[in-house]
Amino acid sequence: MINKKAVLKATIPYTIPVLTGYLCLGIAYGILMDRMGFPLFWTLLASLFIYAGSMQFVTISLLAAGFDPIGTFLMTLMVNARHIFYGISMLKKYQGIGILKPYLILALTDETFSIVCSEEPPEGINRTWFYFFITLLNHLYWVTGSLLGGILGSIITINTKGLDFALTALFVVIFVNQWKSTTNHLPALIGVLSAITCRLIFGSNDFIIPSMVTILILVTVLKKPIIRGKKKN
Hints:
By secondary structure, the chain is an all-alpha fold. Helix content is 76%, strand content 0%. It has helices at 4-35, 40-50, 53-65, 69-79, 82-89, 101-106, 110-118, 127-155, 165-180, 186-202, 208-221, 223-232. It starts with a helix and ends with a helix.
């Protein structure tokens, strides 16, 4: 019998950095949704079922612009194309997960991906439920932050200019934390240099997919030195 309470207790510390980020980011999103005239119900639905921070911020303007399914599909593909590569890299991790797998796939965000990839369950903790609770807690943090933002947005009046930068700030904090937590910086350097190079070549609107392809190729080619670096840590 799996002690789920023990698994949950062991999982919480891994998600605390995401909690702080998601509450701030979710509040920013909720406030922006309220400023655009969307009721709290729509904020809740978006955070539950879209659950993609960057895409949700983009969705605010898409909803305001009117019905455009083809444009929305293409925009979503561009913004969240990186999840294709996330999914490929998680095939082995999520092998044999069972009935929880569909939810783990649905709720795989950048931050959850970062934790699941870099952390292993403590001794005696079930792997499947460890991944599930990391994913669920992060999801709940985002929903909670969004709802708080929607409520605050209807109560207080503030200048919302620059609130959408909260997403960029969160990515920077996660990157710095990952950099400081390991001595093997090769994966991080691959990501940064690939993104900068593709940004210069393809421009700001079209560099995401080429960056992901470049990163996937380089990580595959340099797999052995990356693994050796992790083992040394």
